[in-house]
Amino acid sequence: MEFRSPPVRGFALWRAVKLRLPYDRVNWTNSSFLIGTTLVTLTGVPLYLWHYGVDAFQVAMFFLFFIATGLSITLGYHRLFSHMAFQASWPVRLVTLIFGAAAFENCALAWVSDHRRHHKHVDHDEDPYDISKGFFHAHIGWIMFKLDPEPPWDNVADLRKDPLVMWQDRFYVPIAVFTSFVVPALLGYWHAGAVGALGGFLIAGVARVVAVQHMTFFINSLCHTVGNQPYSNKCSARDSWFMAIFTFGEGYHNYHHEFQHDYRNGVKWWQWDPTKWTIWALEKIRLVKGLRRVPEDKILLAQLADARRRLGEHIACPKVSANARLHALLQAKDAKLHELGDRWAALKTQYASKAVAMKTEYAEKRAEYAERAGHQIEELKEALSEMRRELQAALQLLDHAAAAA
């Protein structure tokens, strides 16, 4: 595009801006919605609160819709449909599809297709929200701009067989608008008339959509930038206990990328993961089944391998090398972790072969089999405990080495 206007300073500035912005690649629908709801949240909501205030009903409605839509994304769109971490009955699928639509993060087919490509190509060009292209791109830019042609949804063939998923895909917009905006307005009207309807629309509707969306977006941006990597450094994903508080447990993102099919993100009992607890509770009342869990030894081995990697980095550090005592301690701990890993692998192989052999004798020697199997299991448990103790000791030594470095 070429301009032939006089070289007026203000016009020249506008020309420079206009030429640099990719107007032909803006996704105007997404950008208008994202910017519009944010502006309404920053202006309309404060004005409403100034004139009418807020009561417990409006606050409760905001949090109820926040939880319903947020959990439908984490439990439904993410762990159920994207990773098939468990199997769900039709009522669970239906509810998560309805309230997942109300988060305005696209239909389940599109969301899952993007997310599966993210895991397959994380930190590379084919990753839809590739963090290497910048924080803004990973957070929201990939939604606002069409930098690449829209890829085909060729990785969701399994979901196309689900009639509920296809129903949501067909009626996504009316489901989203009615559930997200009309229902809160109707509930607000029932509670306090026209003023309550406006409040329900603004607070439990628009403001809640903005909050839920940006909590999801922060997993793609912040949890690939800030946090720890206790399981692997193969990609940029990181664990953030802080983000887990606002995202129903999704903040433990390093674990998730290493073990994506586990129904848990916060694998430790004390880690905040309401999505995990909800799935567990739904299993108890038989609404879901087939919960997929990564074995404890596999998780520990991943932590041991990562601890050895970090030990190696500290051993190579010149400042640590100068400290003969610390250097020797690190090398000894690295050797111990290596020994534990090898011993665990040997025990597993030995146990597996003995289990096969004993299974053939089970009918004749049931009591003996049980006793021998019990001894093997106790040996495995003892080895796991030692691995856990040594890992904790290694992590403490790493902290000491980091301080020395």
Which descriptors apply to this entry?
mainly alpha, 405 residues, 2 strands, 2 domains
Q: How many E strands? A: 2
Terminal Cα separation, in Å? 55 Å
Strand content: under 5%
Please state the CA-atom Rg, rounded to the nearest Å. Answer: 27 Å
What is the ordering of alpha helices and beta strands?
HHHEHHHHHHHHEHHHH
- What is the residue-averaged pLDDT? 85
Gross morphology is globular
- Give a quick account of the main beta sheet: strands, pairing sense, barrel closure: 2 strands, antiparallel
Poorly predicted segments:
1-21
Number of helices: 15
The helix-and-strand class reads mainly alpha
Number of domains: 2
Q: What share of residues is helical?
A: 55-70%
Instruction: Give, in spatial order, the strands making up the sheet with the most strands.
Output: 1-2
Please characterize this protein's 3D structure.
By secondary structure, the protein is an all-alpha fold. It folds into 2 domains: 23-289, no CATH class; 296-404. Helix content is 69%, strand content 1%. It has 15 helices and 2 strands. The chain has helices at residues 9-20, 28-52, 56-82, 90-101, 108-120, 135-144, 163-170, 172-221, 241-246, 253-258, 274-284, 296-315, 318-322, 324-360, 366-404, and strands at residues 87-88, 288-289. Strands 1-2 form a two-stranded antiparallel sheet. Helix 12 packs antiparallel against helix 14 (324-360). The termini are far apart. The relative contact order is 0.08. Residues 1-21 have low confidence and may be disordered.
